[in-house]
Amino acid sequence: MGEIVNQKAAAKRIVETLQSKGYIALFAGGCVRDEMLGREPKDYDVATDAYPEEVEELFSKTIPIGKAFGVIAVVDGVEMIEVATFREEVGTLDGRHPETILFSAAKEDALRRDFTINGMFFDPVKEQLHDYVHGRRDLGKRIITAIGKPTERFAEDHLRMLRAIRFAHNLGFSIDPETEAAIKQMAHLIKNISAERTEVELTRILTDSAKPGDALKHLLEVGLLQYILPELIPMVGQEQPPQFHPEGDVFEHTCLMLNLMNKGQTGESATHAPAYTARELAYTVLLHDVGKPPTASFGAGADGEPRIRFDGHASVGAAMAEEILIGLRFPNKEKKHIVAAIAGHMRFMDVQNMRTSKLRTLIGAETFDLEMELHRLDCLGSHRMLDNYDYVQAYQEKMANEPILPEPWIRGHDLIAMGIKEGKLIGQILKEAYEAQMEDRFASKEEILEWIKANPGDHSC
Protein backbone atom coordinates (compact mmCIF):
# COMPACT_ATOMS: atom_id res chain seq x y z
CA MET A 1 0.00 0.00 0.00
CA GLY A 2 2.79 2.41 0.96
CA GLU A 3 4.59 1.89 -2.33
CA ILE A 4 1.61 2.89 -4.48
CA VAL A 5 0.92 5.90 -2.22
CA ASN A 6 4.50 7.04 -2.80
CA GLN A 7 4.10 6.54 -6.54
CA LYS A 8 0.90 8.58 -6.59
CA ALA A 9 2.65 11.37 -4.70
CA ALA A 10 5.54 11.31 -7.16
CA ALA A 11 3.16 11.40 -10.13
CA LYS A 12 1.31 14.35 -8.62
CA ARG A 13 4.58 16.25 -8.14
CA ILE A 14 5.39 15.69 -11.80
CA VAL A 15 1.94 16.98 -12.81
CA GLU A 16 2.41 20.03 -10.61
CA THR A 17 5.83 20.75 -12.14
CA LEU A 18 4.50 20.49 -15.69
CA GLN A 19 1.47 22.63 -14.93
CA SER A 20 3.65 25.26 -13.27
CA LYS A 21 5.47 25.67 -16.60
CA GLY A 22 2.20 26.15 -18.49
CA TYR A 23 1.72 22.61 -19.78
CA ILE A 24 -1.40 20.47 -19.49
CA ALA A 25 -0.61 17.42 -17.36
CA LEU A 26 -3.05 14.77 -16.12
CA PHE A 27 -3.20 11.29 -14.64
CA ALA A 28 -4.12 8.90 -17.45
CA GLY A 29 -5.67 5.53 -18.12
CA GLY A 30 -5.83 2.64 -15.67
CA CYS A 31 -5.03 4.61 -12.52
CA VAL A 32 -8.01 6.90 -13.18
CA ARG A 33 -10.27 3.91 -13.78
CA ASP A 34 -9.12 2.09 -10.66
CA GLU A 35 -9.44 5.10 -8.37
CA MET A 36 -12.98 5.69 -9.61
CA LEU A 37 -13.77 2.04 -8.83
CA GLY A 38 -12.22 2.28 -5.37
CA ARG A 39 -9.45 -0.14 -6.36
CA GLU A 40 -5.75 0.34 -5.70
CA PRO A 41 -4.00 1.19 -8.99
CA LYS A 42 -0.98 -0.90 -9.99
CA ASP A 43 0.83 2.26 -11.10
CA TYR A 44 0.32 5.89 -12.11
CA ASP A 45 0.90 7.31 -15.59
CA VAL A 46 0.97 10.97 -16.63
CA ALA A 47 -0.11 12.40 -19.98
CA THR A 48 0.86 15.89 -21.12
CA ASP A 49 1.02 18.25 -24.06
CA ALA A 50 4.73 18.80 -23.36
CA TYR A 51 6.94 17.24 -26.03
CA PRO A 52 9.42 14.53 -24.99
CA GLU A 53 12.38 16.91 -25.29
CA GLU A 54 10.59 19.44 -23.08
CA VAL A 55 9.96 16.77 -20.45
CA GLU A 56 13.65 15.83 -20.55
CA GLU A 57 14.68 19.47 -20.11
CA LEU A 58 12.30 20.03 -17.22
CA PHE A 59 13.32 17.07 -15.05
CA SER A 60 16.84 16.28 -13.89
CA LYS A 61 16.67 12.51 -14.28
CA THR A 62 14.79 10.92 -17.17
CA ILE A 63 14.96 7.73 -19.24
CA PRO A 64 13.79 7.72 -22.90
CA ILE A 65 11.97 4.38 -22.65
CA GLY A 66 9.76 5.05 -25.71
CA LYS A 67 10.73 8.44 -27.02
CA ALA A 68 9.56 7.64 -30.56
CA PHE A 69 6.08 7.20 -29.10
CA GLY A 70 6.42 10.23 -26.87
CA VAL A 71 7.08 8.28 -23.66
CA ILE A 72 9.70 9.44 -21.17
CA ALA A 73 10.23 7.92 -17.71
CA VAL A 74 10.77 10.59 -15.06
CA VAL A 75 12.69 9.41 -12.01
CA ASP A 76 11.44 10.98 -8.78
CA GLY A 77 13.43 9.62 -5.86
CA VAL A 78 12.95 5.86 -6.00
CA GLU A 79 9.83 6.16 -8.15
CA MET A 80 9.81 6.01 -11.95
CA ILE A 81 6.75 7.54 -13.59
CA GLU A 82 5.94 7.23 -17.29
CA VAL A 83 5.13 10.60 -18.84
CA ALA A 84 3.60 10.40 -22.31
CA THR A 85 2.93 13.21 -24.75
CA PHE A 86 -0.67 13.33 -25.98
CA ARG A 87 -0.71 11.59 -29.34
CA GLU A 88 -2.87 10.13 -32.06
CA GLU A 89 -1.93 7.08 -34.09
CA VAL A 90 -2.58 6.75 -37.81
CA GLY A 91 -2.84 3.39 -39.58
CA THR A 92 -1.37 0.06 -38.48
CA LEU A 93 1.63 -1.85 -39.77
CA ASP A 94 1.29 -5.26 -38.16
CA GLY A 95 -1.66 -5.38 -35.80
CA ARG A 96 0.37 -3.70 -33.11
CA HIS A 97 2.47 -0.74 -34.33
CA PRO A 98 0.93 2.39 -35.91
CA GLU A 99 2.16 3.68 -39.25
CA THR A 100 2.42 7.25 -37.97
CA ILE A 101 2.56 8.98 -34.59
CA LEU A 102 1.26 12.56 -34.35
CA PHE A 103 1.50 14.57 -31.15
CA SER A 104 -1.91 16.03 -30.37
CA ALA A 105 -4.29 17.20 -27.65
CA ALA A 106 -5.93 15.29 -24.79
CA LYS A 107 -9.16 14.52 -26.67
CA GLU A 108 -7.35 12.97 -29.65
CA ASP A 109 -5.19 10.96 -27.24
CA ALA A 110 -8.29 9.61 -25.51
CA LEU A 111 -9.86 8.60 -28.83
CA ARG A 112 -6.86 6.40 -29.77
CA ARG A 113 -7.10 4.31 -26.59
CA ASP A 114 -8.70 0.87 -26.35
CA PHE A 115 -11.78 1.00 -24.09
CA THR A 116 -13.85 3.84 -22.71
CA ILE A 117 -13.06 2.97 -19.08
CA ASN A 118 -9.34 3.33 -19.91
CA GLY A 119 -9.70 6.58 -21.85
CA MET A 120 -10.25 9.05 -19.02
CA PHE A 121 -7.88 11.65 -17.55
CA PHE A 122 -7.83 13.19 -14.08
CA ASP A 123 -6.26 16.42 -12.90
CA PRO A 124 -4.98 15.69 -9.35
CA VAL A 125 -4.31 19.39 -8.71
CA LYS A 126 -7.77 20.69 -9.62
CA GLU A 127 -9.36 17.30 -8.79
CA GLN A 128 -11.18 17.37 -12.11
CA LEU A 129 -12.12 14.48 -14.42
CA HIS A 130 -11.59 14.82 -18.20
CA ASP A 131 -13.84 12.28 -19.94
CA TYR A 132 -14.12 12.52 -23.73
CA VAL A 133 -15.28 8.92 -24.30
CA HIS A 134 -18.09 8.28 -21.78
CA GLY A 135 -15.83 6.25 -19.53
CA ARG A 136 -17.64 7.31 -16.37
CA ARG A 137 -20.94 6.19 -17.90
CA ASP A 138 -19.56 2.73 -18.76
CA LEU A 139 -17.99 2.33 -15.32
CA GLY A 140 -21.44 2.92 -13.89
CA LYS A 141 -22.95 0.41 -16.32
CA ARG A 142 -20.08 -2.03 -15.60
CA ILE A 143 -19.46 -2.63 -19.26
CA ILE A 144 -16.36 -2.90 -21.48
CA THR A 145 -16.90 -0.80 -24.61
CA ALA A 146 -14.37 -0.14 -27.34
CA ILE A 147 -13.75 3.53 -28.12
CA GLY A 148 -15.18 4.38 -31.55
CA LYS A 149 -15.51 1.45 -33.96
CA PRO A 150 -14.45 -1.81 -32.27
CA THR A 151 -13.10 -3.31 -35.50
CA GLU A 152 -10.78 -0.31 -35.92
CA ARG A 153 -9.50 -0.57 -32.34
CA PHE A 154 -8.82 -4.31 -32.72
CA ALA A 155 -7.17 -3.82 -36.11
CA GLU A 156 -4.78 -1.32 -34.50
CA ASP A 157 -3.71 -3.85 -31.86
CA HIS A 158 -5.09 -7.39 -31.99
CA LEU A 159 -4.10 -7.99 -28.36
CA ARG A 160 -6.93 -5.68 -27.34
CA MET A 161 -9.32 -8.59 -27.90
CA LEU A 162 -7.64 -10.52 -25.08
CA ARG A 163 -7.51 -7.38 -22.98
CA ALA A 164 -11.30 -7.03 -23.32
CA ILE A 165 -11.75 -10.49 -21.79
CA ARG A 166 -9.21 -9.67 -19.08
CA PHE A 167 -10.86 -6.42 -18.06
CA ALA A 168 -14.32 -7.99 -18.10
CA HIS A 169 -13.32 -10.82 -15.75
CA ASN A 170 -10.86 -8.88 -13.61
CA LEU A 171 -13.46 -6.18 -12.93
CA GLY A 172 -16.62 -8.29 -13.04
CA PHE A 173 -17.96 -6.37 -16.06
CA SER A 174 -19.80 -7.50 -19.18
CA ILE A 175 -18.67 -6.71 -22.74
CA ASP A 176 -20.68 -4.39 -24.97
CA PRO A 177 -22.44 -6.50 -27.67
CA GLU A 178 -20.89 -4.62 -30.61
CA THR A 179 -17.44 -4.91 -29.04
CA GLU A 180 -17.90 -8.65 -28.43
CA ALA A 181 -19.21 -9.18 -31.95
CA ALA A 182 -16.05 -7.58 -33.32
CA ILE A 183 -13.92 -9.94 -31.21
CA LYS A 184 -15.74 -12.95 -32.66
CA GLN A 185 -15.29 -11.57 -36.16
CA MET A 186 -11.58 -10.86 -35.76
CA ALA A 187 -10.51 -13.59 -33.31
CA HIS A 188 -8.28 -15.31 -35.87
CA LEU A 189 -5.97 -12.29 -35.91
CA ILE A 190 -4.81 -13.04 -32.36
CA LYS A 191 -2.44 -15.66 -33.79
CA ASN A 192 -0.36 -12.82 -35.20
CA ILE A 193 0.50 -11.56 -31.71
CA SER A 194 3.82 -12.65 -30.19
CA ALA A 195 3.83 -15.46 -27.65
CA GLU A 196 5.30 -13.16 -25.00
CA ARG A 197 2.49 -10.60 -25.25
CA THR A 198 -0.16 -13.32 -25.37
CA GLU A 199 1.25 -15.00 -22.27
CA VAL A 200 1.16 -11.76 -20.27
CA GLU A 201 -2.54 -11.21 -21.00
CA LEU A 202 -3.48 -14.87 -20.55
CA THR A 203 -1.65 -15.01 -17.23
CA ARG A 204 -3.45 -11.94 -15.94
CA ILE A 205 -6.76 -13.47 -17.01
CA LEU A 206 -5.93 -16.64 -15.08
CA THR A 207 -4.44 -15.02 -11.97
CA ASP A 208 -6.39 -11.77 -11.56
CA SER A 209 -9.94 -12.88 -12.40
CA ALA A 210 -12.35 -13.70 -9.60
CA LYS A 211 -13.47 -16.74 -11.61
CA PRO A 212 -10.74 -17.68 -14.12
CA GLY A 213 -12.74 -20.70 -15.26
CA ASP A 214 -15.57 -18.45 -16.42
CA ALA A 215 -12.99 -16.34 -18.26
CA LEU A 216 -11.65 -19.47 -19.99
CA LYS A 217 -15.18 -20.33 -21.13
CA HIS A 218 -15.54 -16.78 -22.43
CA LEU A 219 -12.32 -17.16 -24.45
CA LEU A 220 -13.86 -20.27 -25.99
CA GLU A 221 -17.19 -18.57 -26.71
CA VAL A 222 -15.64 -15.63 -28.57
CA GLY A 223 -13.32 -17.87 -30.59
CA LEU A 224 -9.96 -16.80 -29.12
CA LEU A 225 -9.09 -20.00 -27.27
CA GLN A 226 -8.60 -22.16 -30.35
CA TYR A 227 -5.90 -19.75 -31.58
CA ILE A 228 -3.99 -19.17 -28.34
CA LEU A 229 -4.30 -22.67 -26.83
CA PRO A 230 -5.61 -25.07 -29.49
CA GLU A 231 -4.48 -28.04 -27.38
CA LEU A 232 -7.34 -27.33 -24.96
CA ILE A 233 -10.14 -27.60 -27.52
CA PRO A 234 -10.30 -31.45 -27.47
CA MET A 235 -11.05 -31.20 -23.74
CA VAL A 236 -14.43 -29.71 -24.64
CA GLY A 237 -16.91 -32.59 -24.76
CA GLN A 238 -14.37 -35.20 -23.62
CA GLU A 239 -16.50 -37.38 -21.36
CA GLN A 240 -15.20 -38.76 -18.06
CA PRO A 241 -16.41 -41.60 -15.77
CA PRO A 242 -19.39 -40.05 -13.93
CA GLN A 243 -18.59 -41.92 -10.70
CA PHE A 244 -15.34 -39.93 -10.46
CA HIS A 245 -16.36 -36.82 -12.39
CA PRO A 246 -20.06 -36.02 -11.87
CA GLU A 247 -19.34 -32.43 -12.95
CA GLY A 248 -19.05 -33.33 -16.63
CA ASP A 249 -16.37 -33.22 -19.32
CA VAL A 250 -12.66 -32.45 -18.96
CA PHE A 251 -13.08 -28.79 -19.91
CA GLU A 252 -15.85 -28.25 -17.35
CA HIS A 253 -13.70 -29.96 -14.69
CA THR A 254 -10.77 -27.67 -15.49
CA CYS A 255 -12.95 -24.55 -15.38
CA LEU A 256 -14.37 -25.57 -12.00
CA MET A 257 -10.85 -26.03 -10.64
CA LEU A 258 -9.75 -22.65 -11.96
CA ASN A 259 -12.75 -21.01 -10.28
CA LEU A 260 -11.81 -22.68 -6.99
CA MET A 261 -8.21 -21.39 -7.02
CA ASN A 262 -9.04 -18.27 -5.02
CA LYS A 263 -11.13 -20.10 -2.45
CA GLY A 264 -9.62 -20.42 1.03
CA GLN A 265 -7.37 -23.30 1.97
CA THR A 266 -7.46 -25.07 5.29
CA GLY A 267 -4.95 -26.79 7.52
CA GLU A 268 -1.21 -26.83 6.88
CA SER A 269 -1.45 -25.29 3.41
CA ALA A 270 -3.05 -22.17 4.90
CA THR A 271 -0.44 -21.65 7.64
CA HIS A 272 2.61 -20.97 5.49
CA ALA A 273 3.36 -19.21 2.24
CA PRO A 274 3.12 -21.74 -0.60
CA ALA A 275 6.30 -22.61 -2.47
CA TYR A 276 4.77 -21.78 -5.83
CA THR A 277 3.68 -18.67 -7.71
CA ALA A 278 0.13 -17.81 -8.70
CA ARG A 279 1.17 -18.30 -12.32
CA GLU A 280 2.55 -21.78 -11.61
CA LEU A 281 -0.68 -22.87 -9.95
CA ALA A 282 -2.86 -21.39 -12.69
CA TYR A 283 -1.06 -23.14 -15.54
CA THR A 284 -0.72 -26.39 -13.59
CA VAL A 285 -4.50 -26.45 -13.13
CA LEU A 286 -5.14 -25.31 -16.68
CA LEU A 287 -3.00 -28.04 -18.25
CA HIS A 288 -3.13 -30.90 -15.73
CA ASP A 289 -5.64 -32.93 -17.77
CA VAL A 290 -4.63 -31.85 -21.28
CA GLY A 291 -3.39 -35.41 -21.81
CA LYS A 292 -6.82 -36.98 -21.31
CA PRO A 293 -8.31 -36.59 -24.83
CA PRO A 294 -5.34 -38.24 -26.63
CA THR A 295 -5.28 -41.14 -24.13
CA ALA A 296 -9.03 -41.74 -23.88
CA SER A 297 -10.08 -45.39 -24.28
CA PHE A 298 -12.79 -47.74 -23.12
CA GLY A 299 -11.85 -50.59 -20.80
CA ALA A 300 -12.42 -52.30 -17.47
CA GLY A 301 -12.10 -50.25 -14.30
CA ALA A 302 -10.84 -51.46 -10.92
CA ASP A 303 -14.24 -53.01 -10.27
CA GLY A 304 -14.15 -54.89 -13.55
CA GLU A 305 -16.93 -52.80 -15.05
CA PRO A 306 -16.29 -51.10 -18.42
CA ARG A 307 -15.68 -47.33 -18.33
CA ILE A 308 -13.75 -44.53 -19.99
CA ARG A 309 -10.06 -44.71 -19.11
CA PHE A 310 -7.16 -42.29 -19.53
CA ASP A 311 -4.17 -44.56 -19.02
CA GLY A 312 -0.91 -42.62 -18.99
CA HIS A 313 -2.61 -39.24 -19.30
CA ALA A 314 -0.41 -37.65 -16.64
CA SER A 315 2.84 -38.34 -18.48
CA VAL A 316 1.32 -37.53 -21.88
CA GLY A 317 -0.14 -34.32 -20.45
CA ALA A 318 3.20 -33.34 -18.91
CA ALA A 319 4.89 -33.65 -22.29
CA MET A 320 2.13 -31.62 -23.95
CA ALA A 321 2.27 -28.99 -21.20
CA GLU A 322 6.02 -28.62 -21.66
CA GLU A 323 5.57 -27.90 -25.37
CA ILE A 324 2.79 -25.40 -24.64
CA LEU A 325 4.89 -23.60 -22.04
CA ILE A 326 7.89 -23.51 -24.35
CA GLY A 327 5.65 -21.91 -26.97
CA LEU A 328 4.53 -19.30 -24.42
CA ARG A 329 8.20 -18.58 -23.58
CA PHE A 330 7.85 -19.61 -19.94
CA PRO A 331 10.90 -19.34 -17.67
CA ASN A 332 12.64 -22.71 -17.30
CA LYS A 333 12.20 -22.92 -13.53
CA GLU A 334 8.44 -22.37 -13.59
CA LYS A 335 8.08 -24.65 -16.59
CA LYS A 336 9.95 -27.41 -14.75
CA HIS A 337 7.72 -27.07 -11.68
CA ILE A 338 4.48 -27.13 -13.69
CA VAL A 339 5.53 -30.13 -15.79
CA ALA A 340 6.67 -32.08 -12.70
CA ALA A 341 3.39 -31.42 -10.89
CA ILE A 342 1.33 -32.54 -13.89
CA ALA A 343 3.46 -35.66 -14.40
CA GLY A 344 2.99 -36.72 -10.79
CA HIS A 345 -0.55 -35.63 -10.06
CA MET A 346 -2.03 -39.14 -10.05
CA ARG A 347 0.33 -40.29 -7.27
CA PHE A 348 -2.03 -38.99 -4.60
CA MET A 349 -4.40 -41.86 -5.37
CA ASP A 350 -1.93 -44.20 -3.66
CA VAL A 351 -0.70 -42.17 -0.68
CA GLN A 352 -2.51 -44.27 1.94
CA ASN A 353 -0.76 -47.40 0.66
CA MET A 354 2.67 -45.90 0.06
CA ARG A 355 5.76 -47.06 1.88
CA THR A 356 6.84 -44.45 4.40
CA SER A 357 9.99 -43.66 2.43
CA LYS A 358 7.99 -43.01 -0.74
CA LEU A 359 5.50 -40.79 1.09
CA ARG A 360 8.29 -38.78 2.71
CA THR A 361 10.00 -38.39 -0.67
CA LEU A 362 6.74 -37.10 -2.12
CA ILE A 363 6.28 -34.58 0.69
CA GLY A 364 9.92 -33.52 0.51
CA ALA A 365 9.83 -32.82 -3.21
CA GLU A 366 10.48 -29.26 -4.40
CA THR A 367 7.05 -29.15 -6.04
CA PHE A 368 5.09 -30.75 -3.17
CA ASP A 369 3.11 -27.63 -2.20
CA LEU A 370 2.08 -27.15 -5.82
CA GLU A 371 1.14 -30.84 -6.22
CA MET A 372 -0.80 -30.83 -2.95
CA GLU A 373 -2.85 -27.79 -3.95
CA LEU A 374 -3.48 -29.26 -7.40
CA HIS A 375 -4.77 -32.42 -5.74
CA ARG A 376 -7.07 -30.45 -3.42
CA LEU A 377 -8.55 -28.53 -6.34
CA ASP A 378 -8.77 -31.70 -8.43
CA CYS A 379 -10.91 -33.32 -5.74
CA LEU A 380 -13.08 -30.27 -5.08
CA GLY A 381 -13.65 -29.87 -8.82
CA SER A 382 -14.95 -33.44 -9.15
CA HIS A 383 -15.99 -36.02 -6.52
CA ARG A 384 -15.13 -33.71 -3.55
CA MET A 385 -13.54 -36.54 -1.55
CA LEU A 386 -10.49 -35.24 0.33
CA ASP A 387 -9.49 -38.39 2.22
CA ASN A 388 -6.06 -38.65 0.58
CA TYR A 389 -5.43 -34.94 1.05
CA ASP A 390 -6.39 -35.20 4.72
CA TYR A 391 -4.18 -38.28 5.13
CA VAL A 392 -1.12 -36.42 3.85
CA GLN A 393 -1.89 -33.39 6.02
CA ALA A 394 -2.17 -35.63 9.07
CA TYR A 395 1.18 -37.22 8.25
CA GLN A 396 2.77 -33.78 7.88
CA GLU A 397 1.48 -32.83 11.34
CA LYS A 398 2.86 -36.08 12.75
CA MET A 399 6.29 -35.27 11.29
CA ALA A 400 6.20 -31.58 12.22
CA ASN A 401 9.10 -31.86 14.68
CA GLU A 402 11.56 -33.67 12.45
CA PRO A 403 12.84 -33.13 8.91
CA ILE A 404 10.75 -34.90 6.30
CA LEU A 405 13.94 -35.68 4.39
CA PRO A 406 16.68 -36.25 7.00
CA GLU A 407 20.39 -36.12 6.26
CA PRO A 408 21.43 -39.56 4.97
CA TRP A 409 23.42 -41.66 7.44
CA ILE A 410 25.22 -43.52 4.67
CA ARG A 411 27.33 -41.74 2.05
CA GLY A 412 29.30 -43.01 -0.89
CA HIS A 413 32.61 -42.75 0.92
CA ASP A 414 31.29 -45.09 3.64
CA LEU A 415 30.69 -47.79 1.03
CA ILE A 416 34.00 -47.22 -0.73
CA ALA A 417 35.76 -47.61 2.65
CA MET A 418 34.04 -51.00 2.95
CA GLY A 419 35.64 -52.07 -0.32
CA ILE A 420 32.58 -51.66 -2.53
CA LYS A 421 33.66 -50.47 -5.96
CA GLU A 422 32.20 -47.30 -7.45
CA GLY A 423 29.37 -47.81 -9.94
CA LYS A 424 25.66 -48.61 -10.11
CA LEU A 425 25.85 -50.88 -7.06
CA ILE A 426 26.80 -47.98 -4.77
CA GLY A 427 23.85 -45.94 -6.05
CA GLN A 428 21.48 -48.84 -5.42
CA ILE A 429 22.80 -49.44 -1.89
CA LEU A 430 22.59 -45.73 -1.03
CA LYS A 431 18.99 -45.57 -2.25
CA GLU A 432 17.94 -48.63 -0.24
CA ALA A 433 19.83 -47.50 2.86
CA TYR A 434 18.15 -44.09 2.78
CA GLU A 435 14.70 -45.66 2.35
CA ALA A 436 15.39 -47.94 5.31
CA GLN A 437 16.52 -44.95 7.40
CA MET A 438 13.31 -43.03 6.63
CA GLU A 439 11.21 -46.08 7.50
CA ASP A 440 13.00 -46.48 10.86
CA ARG A 441 14.06 -50.06 10.05
CA PHE A 442 17.44 -49.40 11.62
CA ALA A 443 18.22 -47.43 14.76
CA SER A 444 21.57 -46.05 13.70
CA LYS A 445 24.15 -45.66 10.96
CA GLU A 446 26.13 -48.53 12.49
CA GLU A 447 23.20 -50.93 12.17
CA ILE A 448 22.78 -50.13 8.47
CA LEU A 449 26.50 -50.63 7.86
CA GLU A 450 26.29 -53.98 9.63
CA TRP A 451 23.39 -54.99 7.39
CA ILE A 452 25.38 -54.05 4.27
CA LYS A 453 28.38 -56.08 5.48
CA ALA A 454 26.19 -59.08 6.26
CA ASN A 455 24.42 -58.96 2.88
CA PRO A 456 27.11 -58.20 0.27
CA GLY A 457 25.10 -59.72 -2.56
CA ASP A 458 21.61 -58.78 -1.43
CA HIS A 459 20.63 -55.16 -1.16
CA SER A 460 16.90 -55.35 -0.61
CA CYS A 461 16.23 -53.89 2.84
Can you tell me about this structure?
By secondary structure, the protein is of the alpha+beta class. The protein has 4 domains: about 1-140, Beta Polymerase, domain 2 (2-Layer Sandwich); about 145-230, Hydrophobic Seed Protein (Orthogonal Bundle); about 260-395, no CATH class; about 410-455, no CATH class. The protein has 23 helices and 13 strands. It has helices spanning about 1-20, 30-35, 50-60, 105-110, 135-140, 150-155, 160-170, 175-185, 195-210, 210-220, 225-230, 250-260, 270, 280-285, 290-295, 315-325, 330-345, 355-365, 370-380, 385-400, 410-415, 425-440, 445-455; strands at about 25-30, 45-50, 60-65, 70-75, 80-85, 85-90, 100-105, 120-125, 130, 145, 175, 295-300, 305-310. It has a 7-stranded mixed beta sheet with strand order 3-4-5-2-1-8-9. α18 crosses α22. Its cofactor is Mg(2+). One of its GO terms (biological process) is tRNA processing. GO terms for molecular function: metal ion binding; nucleotide binding; nucleotidyltransferase activity; tRNA binding. Belongs to the tRNA nucleotidyltransferase/poly(A) polymerase family.
